[in-house]
Amino acid sequence: MTDRKTHLDPRATTILVACCAFWGLQQILIKTTVAEVPPMWQASIRMAGAVVLLMLWCRARGVKLFEGDGTLWSGLLVGALFAGEFVCIYIGLQHTTASRLTVFVYTAPFTVALLLPRFVPTERLRGIQWVGLVIAFIGVVVAFAESFGHASRSQLQGDVLALLAGLLWGLTTLAIRTTRLATASAEKTLFYQIGVTAAVTPLLSLAFNEAWRISYSGYAWFSIALQTVVGAFATYLAWMWLVRHYPATRISSFTFLTPLFALVFGVVLLKEQLTLQLVLALIGVGVGILLVNRKAAP
């Protein structure tokens, strides 16, 4: 049986903050590299590299990835959801800003909070926690309102793709917690996701007529290396471990921190405009995180 905790302890909180910080930066890395490395080809390189790293990690630690444990079909489902999320993110970044896309992607906690308690009653949120989610949701709505009237058709398409990516992420977490993967190792759960994505993205790259080459600038390879080693391998493996040992509704809501980091990186590194709508959205996100993770009175 999995030793599942009921609250986020300091170790989990530290890991989450570190993951969220990198995920905020990761959107910047993807966006600044996509002009040189086509999006699906970029994702293909990244995921293939992550699969190799994960297999080396598992071999060193004696973790079995290919033993029959009844997780194949649920693993393929989770892999398909994960791949769909990343396709939406990579394409969406070609239409909207990195900070906006990240805010919309992190609507995923709403999907988890609404659906997961129907299958796992212990994941049910209390009233004050729902208030926190609603406040955070209002913040997202405020940010999304910026798209109407002043945004181009292309930016609206990017926003919709980001929202779809958030939905797919939420469904991925739901599938992990409600299928045989709930008791599988973090490594095997991640293997299904990056393995399917590594198989799908090259096909999409060919369908989009992207040019395949490996002659890129030093910055492009540095960006891809960070996305591969820290992003697709280290932080995603840490996230799988968290989902296996902590309440998914709580850790999912905690990821609302990522738009904070993305906004800071977007403004500082990409010189994106700091709008009032995004500031209000992020205030709502911060208040929501505090309320969702507030412990019940004894």
Question: Can you characterise this structure?
Answer:
It holds the Pfam family EamA. One of its GO terms (cellular component) is membrane. The chain crosses the membrane at residues 12-29, 41-58, 70-92, 98-116, 128-148, 160-178, 190-208, 220-239, 251-270, 276-293. The chain starts with 9 loop residues before the first helix and ends in a 6-residue tail after the last helix. With 298 residues, the chain is mainly alpha-helical. The protein has one domain (10-292). It has helices spanning 10-33, 39-61, 72-92, 98-105, 108-115, 127-145, 153-178, 186-207, 218-245, 248-254, 257-270, 276-292. The radius of gyration is 18 Å and the shape is globular.
Concise structural overview:
This protein has 298 residues and is an all-alpha fold.
Oligomer: single chain
Number of folding domains?
A: 1
- Cα Rg: 18 Å
- Helices, by number, come to 12
Q: In sequence order, what are the helices and strands, one letter per element?
A: HHHHHHHHHHHH
Q: Biggest β-sheet: count, sense, barrel?
A: none
Instruction: Tell me the β content.
Output: under 5%
Which percent range fits the helix content?
A: over 70%
Query: What is the 3D form?
Result: globular
Mean pLDDT: 85
Distance between the termini: 27 Å
Question: Which spans have pLDDT < 50 for at least 5 consecutive residues?
Answer: none
**SSE class:** mainly alpha
Number of strands: 0
Domain EamA: 16-143, 158-293
Protein name: DMT family transporter
Membrane topology: Multi-pass membrane protein
Keywords: Membrane, Transmembrane, Transmembrane helix
